[in-house]
């Protein structure tokens, strides 16, 4: 799994976040999406094989700009994720 952080320009409210989240969720391989208009970014958790260009295109088709894209390994943090 990987975590992708995209700078998204043009999100002004919670409804904008919802629009971005909805289109990104439809991209094959995407597992989780969280957007913040205040921070101007969208965080995506996806399978390693996901095509980041498809995510970028999906957002751009909705009228939002996509700037920098960062990809990093995803580390699950939770109650049962720590090692003993």
UniProtKB/TrEMBL annotation:
Cross-referenced PROSITE patterns: HMA_2
The organism's place on the tree of life at top rank: Bacteria
Signal peptide: none
InterPro entries: HMA_dom (IPR006121), HMA_dom_sf (IPR036163)
Any one Pfam family match given in the protein's UniProt record, by short name: HMA
GO molecular function: metal ion binding
Occurrences of domain HMA (ranges): 2-67
CDD domains registered for this protein in UniProt: HMA (cd00371)
Protein name (Swiss-Prot/TrEMBL): Cation transporter
Annotated source species: Candidatus Borkfalkia excrementigallinarum
